[in-house]
Amino acid sequence: MKKLKWYFLAFCVINTFITLFVAAVMYIYFPGENITPDYLWKIPLLSFCSVLPAMVLFSKKDPSRREFIMRRILHFVFTVAVVVGLLLIYGWLETRQLPFFITFFMLVFCTTTYIGFRDEKKLADKINEKIKEKNASHDT
Fold it and tell me: What is the distance between the alpha carbons of residues 102 and 138, in angstroms, rounded to a whole number?
């Protein structure tokens, strides 16, 4: 159930950002153009497909450091493949834009990964501190 909640939250966040991004691009680069009804299924489909590669991140056992890094790399590659593939199919991305898009995607991916690791480390440090305090109070 916890994984399902995570997938749903990720879908909602991605869907929101894609919707805002599409709205901004339409406003800036295509003023006066309207979003067509097919966007109502394209954006959620892109969001859903963007979440699917995260399945490689989850494991029933604790992965080794090497396995964890490989899972992160696979996650990135699968996500880029899915997103770029759908954007090309939709006609929202041209092949000449691929280097810029992949660079931008890598920057966003690395930033969000770093922020996630930083937050997880803070939480782990906080939990470890509470455990130390609890153990110290039991020893006295």
Answer: 53
Specify the long-range contacts of residues 53-56, CB closer than 8 Å, at least 24 apart. 53/78, 53/79, 53/82, 54/6, 54/7, 54/10, 54/79
* Residues 83-138 pLDDT 10s: 999 999 998 888 898 898 889 888 888 888 888 788 888 988 999 999 998 888 87
Where are the chain's structural domains? 1-93, 98-140
Read off the DSSP letter of residue 94.
-
Backbone torsions φ then ψ of 92, nearest 5 degrees? -90, -10
One-letter identity of residue 121? K
Q: Is the pTM here over 0.90, yes or no?
A: no
Q: What is the pLDDT of residues 10-62, one digit of tens each?
A: 889 889 988 888 888 888 888 888 888 998 999 999 999 988 888 887 777 88
